[in-house]
Amino acid sequence: MIPDPKNRVKVGREKKKNRSRCSPYQYQKKDTESQEKFTQKSPDDGTVEIAGGGHFAQVLDQDGRDRNEQDLVRRYREIAIHPECDMAIEDIVNEAIVANELKDAVRVIFNNLPYGRDIQRKIEDEFQEVLRLMNFNTKGHDVFRRWYDQKGNERNSSTHFKDDLYFVSPGQIYMYNLKPHLDYCFVKPLKNQNLLENRKEQPNVGIVKYTNNALEAIGITPGTLITFTPNSEFEFIIEGERLYCMKSNDIALTHEYQGNEEENNPSWAKSY
Asked: To 10 degrees, the CA torsion angle through 33, 34, 39, 41?
């Protein structure tokens, strides 16, 4: 059967008429949605998606394989080899070994010892002699940090190089050739002139001994009387003088001299 040419033209006009009712945007949107994309859609709110990665984790398995204390010690020493654990141990040692004029780093406690004062005094004298032989005031950190590996060999911390030499980070350098490093400064403590207070040292007040360029730029030079923030100082013995080291931003105020200021430098500091 041969189709009628008039009907063919009529059908063609209907398709063209229906097509004209659709906007070009609808055609474009339909074609775009039908295509498969291999990239993520960009958000319009300005957010950015960041792929996660670089995660590192370790697990300590305590499933009963460590039958005794020796196995546990061996396991803990293996863990201490990792840098992250070694840094944590160093922080513990730094907090544990703190010596100053008022309190020793280590001491003997005789509270429950059933002996008289004479025996206790002899034990204390021998203990101080042991600390002297070990040079604990200088090497206390490494003595506390020293341990034995699985083979029974004596090991030091990862910062120990040899003899009295150690590795340190730049942030652990406080002075070089009597010049403060980075933003550190050194302050001389003062004697307490208040007779009503039972303390030898005036709290949070001192005289600047060694300064830095940033402090000198604002007028804080050696000899300036200052007040510093509480618990910001840590003790050093430099050329027989007991000084407090602190950061520049720990200096809170400057003062005028009253005329009764006296440095608090104990006699034992001169022997270093």
From this structure: 10
Quick count: other Cβ atoms within 10 Å of Cβ 146?
13
Contact 86, 167 (CB under 8 A): no
Q: For helices 136-145 and 83-96, give the axis angle rounded to 10 degrees.
A: 140
What domains are there in the chain, each with its CATH number?
69-167 (no CATH), 172-271 (2.30.33.40)
Report pTM: 0.49
Instruction: From residue 199, give the alpha-carbon distance in Å to each of 93, 103, 196, 227.
Output: 29, 14, 9, 17
> How many Å apart are CA 131 and CA 157, to the nearest integer?
20
Alpha-carbon span 91 to 266, nearest angstrom:
29
Question: Can you read off the two tokens belonging to residue 120?
Answer: 């206790």
The alpha helices in 35-153, defined as continuous H runs, are 69-80, 83-96, 117-133, 136-145
Task: Give the span between the Cα atoms of 272 and 268, in whole angstroms.
Answer: 8
Cα 162 from Cα 13, distance rounded (Å): 98
Find out whether 146 and 137 touch, Cβ atoms under 8 Å. Answer: no
| Residue type, position 199, single letter | R
Do the Cβ atoms of 121 and 108 come closer than 8 Å?
Answer: no
In 10 A of CB 218, how many CB atoms? 10
Long-range contacts of the stretch 61-68 (C-beta < 8 A, 24+): none
Residues 6+ away with beta carbon under 8 Å from 175? 181, 184, 186, 210, 236, 238, 245
**Angle subtended at Cα 172 by Cα 169 and Cα 175, rounded to the nearest 5 degrees:** 120
pLDDT digits (tens, 9 = 90+) for 200-256: 899 999 999 999 999 999 999 999 999 999 988 888 888 889 899 999 999 999 999
